[in-house]
Amino acid sequence: MVYTVITIIIVLASILLIGIVLIQNSKGGGLASSFQAQNQIMGVRKTTDFIEKATWVLIIVVVFLSIVSVKFSHNENTGDESQVKEQVEDILPSSTTTNQE
């Protein structure tokens, strides 16, 4: 359950990160270059700073949650080993159960 929630948050943060990176311009213009008016609420520099900070925050969130998800995925998968073993035995014939007559 926790692993699923963390995975969903990672996917959403990754999608937001992709959008923010696509907004940016490699030469520093990006979203800020489309604002030409002098009377704007956020200045060009403030817009660039916000986008840069948002990029770093999303990168940190994705990395941190990826590390945390490894712990929760290990805990959720350890309880299912007996079920997986039974399923594998149903699919594959066991080498110890040979017909000897």
Overview of the molecule:
- With 101 residues, the chain is an all-alpha fold.
- The protein has a domain at 1-25 and 43-75.
- It contains 4 helices and no strands.
- The protein has helices spanning 2-23, 30-33, 44-78, 81-91.
- α1 (2-23) runs antiparallel to α3.
- The model has no long low-confidence stretch (mean pLDDT 74).
Summarize the structure.
The protein has 4 helices and no strands.
Q: What would you report as the Rg, rounded to the nearest angstrom? A: 25 Å
Write the element-wise H/E pattern from the N-terminal end onward: HHHH
Shape: elongated
Largest sheet, in brief, is: none
Low-confidence stretches: none
Give the amount of beta strand, in percent: under 5%
What's the helix count?
A: 4
Helix fraction?
over 70%
Class inferred from helices and paired strands = mainly alpha
- What gap, in angstroms, lies between the N and C termini? 49 Å
Instruction: State the total count of DSSP E strands.
Output: 0
What's the rounded overall pLDDT mean? Answer: 74
